[in-house]
């Protein structure tokens, strides 16, 4: 393998926008600095360079623009609003870093962050970076068993948490969940720092047991003047954070991000992909425990000297489907980043977009969507709402890559235009290739369906290894296609270079010898004006002739949510069957679908297709700890049972234990 495919001039120039303590010796090297074995991905970005990510995100901006607005916190749950300048942010982070240092957190140590969408969660990430410590953020309210796995894997010296999180219809006390996790975990965490939420929930602090009050700890450090004023120097290849993927069984996979490559790539992306400059505002609607929020609530905007909006609430019901439009208008947001599922929820609650008309959004230039496949109808609806001066842009990336690998780029200077149905074109610095499932050869003909891979080396923001699980790194991502990173997704590149991500490779349905993408069928179903969400799964053929046949799980628009299965089958299903056969031909064999009130999703909005697939295949349903509401699985199982797609209901008791 060579580094000939790397755009050296691009990353050489991008690295100039980072303040290095010691400049790197090269842009990329195949020499291993931390992992001497050759490994499947033997590349180090900006080797020999030293820096501090927190310094680049805060300190350097305070030298010239200390009063520039850095963070806006808007909570629909409390409700409350706060704003922090870069100088105020730096003060909070220096103090919290002092708290962590007083509890013996040093360079290379890990800190677990288990907090809701509050400013203190952002301070925590940056305080760890300031010390050279490795943070691992887990979204608040995570199930104790899964939280315990992460505690055992990353072995944190300190856990930062809060008394509670707030959902639209319930309060989630965090301490009982955390204490249960600590009882399950083999590793014992010596210190837990708890942010109380006065007026909502205040919990007892067990000082002898290792609990500490966040506010009291901050005050102690201020009074003793023990703030951390100087950032710790780290190597470019030193880890910045570990972020766990939402596996359903076994040990979690900890995605690591290094300091140097991450800082360069994120800073570059703010210019080239998002065109958000210093002093401009970006709103990323994602939980702090997910990669999107790490990259574009925290690190991306602050590395660029921009303003970031942190929102505690939902896209609907807090108080209504107009809350995102209010945020965009009130804070003069230039770019928003959200998931398609959030836009679908808004569309379902307010299909005519009447609430959006209350809020002028003249500063808004783009709405980026990612996290799952975006259907054309949802994108068209959003485009109609925001108007012709704003682009709606689907883009594609993964937790592993750290930033978009395909997108329409606003800062390229080429006047790129989004093409709905695709995830944009290859972003410079990434090498996206389609491989044949049968021969593993690169497919160069346009519109040829295959497996999506990235040619090595991966872009600088990508993960260089898994935390404590190097064998899984190779087997999960590189063993199938040596020299490539396997995304696990299938799709194609069209004649204009736009990349179409159709489905996960394990969601391809083999129907009577024909390979069909579930994503292509979902796209057709979602084009129906009465359908707002759906997923398609392979159902074992009841006639035992075709192996599997596609089955739709459909959610209807609010005005039609009262439809029974019979009404749906008589009025809407025939349209869906006709549309599918018109587009894909009779080989699609699509004629089965059920209507349900909602789909099972993770907290980040991904539809849990695997759980439904396990139901219809009569397998044990593996419920991930990241599920938003396990009750939805009971609803799905009931619908499948009542429509005679499964013979028994076995899920309820096991699922209720997770609620």
Automatic annotation (TrEMBL):
Where does the AMP-binding enzyme C-terminal domain start and stop, copy by copy? 521-606
What domain of life does the native source organism fall in? Eukaryota
| InterPro entries listed in its UniProt record | ACAS_N, AMP-bd_C, AMP-bd_C_sf, AMP-binding_CS, AMP-dep_synth/lig_dom, ANL_N_sf
Q: Name one GO molecular function term.
A: propionate-CoA ligase activity
Q: Which PROSITE patterns match?
A: AMP_BINDING
Q: Which residues form the Acetyl-coenzyme A synthetase N-terminal domain?
A: 11-57
Domain (AMP-dependent synthetase/ligase) spans 58-455
Listed PANTHER family: ACYL-COA SYNTHETASE (PTHR43347), ACYL-COA SYNTHETASE SHORT-CHAIN FAMILY MEMBER 3, MITOCHONDRIAL (PTHR43347:SF3)
Family label: Belongs to the ATP-dependent AMP-binding enzyme family.
What's the protein here called?
AMP-dependent synthetase and ligase
Q: Which organism is it from?
A: Absidia repens
């Amino acid at each position: 393998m060579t580094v000939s495919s790397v755009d050296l001039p691009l990353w050489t120039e991008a690295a100039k926008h980072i303040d290095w303590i010691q400049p790197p010796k090269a842009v990329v090297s195949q020499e291993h600095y931390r992992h001497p074995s050759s490994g499947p991905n033997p590349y180090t970005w900006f080797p020999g360079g030293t820096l501090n990510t927190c310094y680049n995100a805060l300190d350097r901006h305070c030298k010239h623009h200390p009063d520039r607005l850095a963070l806006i916190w808007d909570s629909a749950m409390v409700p409350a609003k706060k704003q922090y300048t870069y100088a105020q942010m730096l003060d909070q982070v220096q103090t919290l870093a002092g708290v962590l240092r007083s509890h013996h957190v040093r360079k290379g140590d890990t800190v677990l962050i288990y907090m809701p969408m509050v400013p203190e969660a952002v301070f925590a990430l940056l305080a760890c970076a300031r010390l050279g410590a490795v943070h691992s953020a887990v979204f608040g309210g995570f199930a104790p068993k899964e939280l315990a796995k992460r505690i055992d894997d990353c072995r944190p010296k300190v856990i930062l948490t809060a008394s509670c999180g707030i959902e639209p219809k319930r309060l989630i006390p965090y301490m009982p969940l955390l204490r249960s996790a600590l009882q399950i975990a083999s590793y014992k965490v010596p210190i837990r720092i708890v942010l109380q939420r006065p007026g909502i929930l205040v919990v007892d602090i067990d000082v002898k047991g290792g609990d500490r009050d966040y506010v009291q700890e901050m005050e102690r450090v201020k009074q003793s003047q023990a703030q951390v004023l100087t950032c710790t120097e780290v190597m470019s290849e030193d880890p910045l954070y570990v972020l766990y993927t939402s596996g359903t069984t076994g040990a979690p996979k900890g995605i690591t991000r290094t300091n140097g490559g991450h800082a360069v790539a994120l800073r570059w992306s703010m210019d080239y992909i998002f065109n958000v400059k210093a002093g401009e505002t970006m709103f990323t609607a994602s939980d702090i425990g997910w990669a999107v929020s790490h990259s574009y609530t925290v690190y991306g905007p602050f590395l660029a000297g921009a303003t970031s909006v942190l929102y505690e609430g939902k896209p609907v019901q807090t108080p209504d489907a107009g809350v995102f439009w209010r945020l965009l208008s009130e804070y003069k947001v230039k770019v928003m980043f959200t998931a398609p599922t959030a836009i679908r929820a808004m569309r379902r609650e307010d299909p005519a977009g009447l609430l959006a008309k209350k809020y002028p959004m003249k500063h808004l230039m783009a709405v980026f969507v990612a996290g799952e496949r975006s259907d054309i109808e949802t994108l068209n609806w959003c485009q109609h709402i925001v108007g012709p001066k704003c682009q709606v842009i689907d883009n594609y990336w993964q937790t592993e890559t750290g930033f978009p690998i395909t997108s329409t780029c606003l800062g390229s200077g080429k006047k790129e235009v989004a093409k709905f149905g695709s995830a944009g074109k290859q972003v410079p610095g990434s090498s996206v290739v389609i491989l044949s499932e049968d021969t593993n050869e690169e497919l160069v003909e346009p519109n040829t369906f295959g497996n999506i891979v990235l040619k090595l080396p991966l872009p600088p923001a990508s993960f260089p290894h898994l935390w404590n699980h190097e064998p899984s790194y190779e087997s999960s991502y590189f063993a199938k296609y040596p020299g490539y990173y396997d995304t696990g997704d299938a799709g194609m590149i069209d004649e204009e270079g736009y990349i179409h991500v159709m489905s996960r490779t394990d969601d391809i349905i083999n129907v009577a010898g024909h390979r069909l993408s579930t994503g292509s069928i979902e796209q057709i179903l979602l084009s129906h004006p009465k359908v707002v969400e759906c997923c398609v799964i392979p159902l074992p053929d009841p006639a035992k002739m075709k192996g599997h046949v596609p089955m739709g799980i459909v959610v209807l628009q609010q005005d039609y949510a009262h439809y029974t299965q019979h009404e749906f089958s008589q009025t809407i299903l025939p349209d869906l069957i006709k549309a599918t056969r018109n587009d894909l031909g009779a080989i699609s064999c699509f004629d089965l679908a059920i209507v349900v009130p909602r789909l099972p999703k993770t907290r980040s909005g991904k539809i849990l297709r695997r759980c439904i697939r396990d139901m219809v295949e009569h397998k044990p349903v593996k419920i991930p700890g990241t599920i938003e509401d396990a009750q939805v699985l009971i609803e799905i199982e009931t619908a499948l049972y009542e429509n005679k797609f499964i013979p028994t209901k076995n899920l309820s008791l096991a699922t209720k234990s997770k609620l």
